[in-house]
Structure formats: structure tokens, C-alpha cells
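Q: what sequence does this backbone want?
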């Protein structure tokens, strides 16, 4: 399974080599804004154009299974984009979500086990009559 936190070229949404689309996917912005910034940066300094081609040749293409998985579930796509940008915050949110789930499960478990105990006592009382 390919890593979801790694940078990949996005050839499916890319125009030239998929670098700007890959950066946009990585940080969670519209590719148009990354392309505009790249063009403006290329006019301002030549090294951006060089960096673009170096990244285009060195970075790996996004695996097809990631396209399928992340396109199917936009919530998961957003989660992984946030995880790439701020891993600590994402882990805190994830821990908070699991704590909330644990609290809910404990509440449900307490509800069902306490009513089952009462029911078991009533059945035992009826048996002994």
C-alpha cells in the first residue's frame, strides 16, 4: 500500500508534468493557484523553472489505487491533506475522536449491562418463587 503522506506527481490533474497538481493535492489547495504562483515565480526568478523540472523528473507518480481510494471518499482525502500539513494537530484530533468514541461505547455498554443485570435479577426472582 502506498504511503498517503508522501508527495506524488498528480498526472491525472496535471498540465505539463503534474508537479503543480501534485503540490496542490499535497497541501489541499486548487491547482490553479499553484500554477499561477509557479508562473509568476518563473518570471521573477529562473530557479523555480529549474526546480519544477527537477521535481518532475525525481518525484514518483501518484499510484492509481490512491486515486481510487481518495476520490471515493472526500473526507479521507481532506484528513490526509491535514495530516501532511500538521501531523501533531491531526493526531490530537484523532485521539480526541477515539476518546469520544470510547466514551460513547462505555455509555452504551453501561446502559445495556445495567439493564441486563436488573433483568437477570428479575428472572432469578421469578425462578425462585
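A:
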Amino acid at each position: 500500500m502506498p504511503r498517503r503522506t508522501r508527495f506524488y506527481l498528480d498526472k491525472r490533474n496535471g498540465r505539463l508534468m503534474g508537479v503543480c497538481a501534485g503540490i496542490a493535492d499535497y497541501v489541499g489547495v486548487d491547482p490553479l493557484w499553484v500554477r499561477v504562483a509557479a508562473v509568476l515565480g518563473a518570471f521573477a526568478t529562473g530557479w523555480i523553472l529549474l526546480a519544477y523540472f527537477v521535481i518532475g523528473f525525481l518525484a514518483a507518480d501518484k499510484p492509481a489505487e490512491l486515486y481510487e481510494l481518495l476520490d471515493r471518499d472526500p473526507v479521507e482525502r481532506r484528513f490526509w491533506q491535514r495530516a501532511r500539513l500538521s501531523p501533531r494537530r491531526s493526531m490530537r484530533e484523532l485521539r480526541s475522536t477515539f476518546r469520544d468514541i470510547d466514551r460513547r461505547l462505555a455509555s452504551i455498554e453501561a446502559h445495556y449491562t445495567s439493564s441486563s443485570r436488573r433483568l437477570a435479577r428479575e428472572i432469578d426472582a421469578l425462578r425462585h418463587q
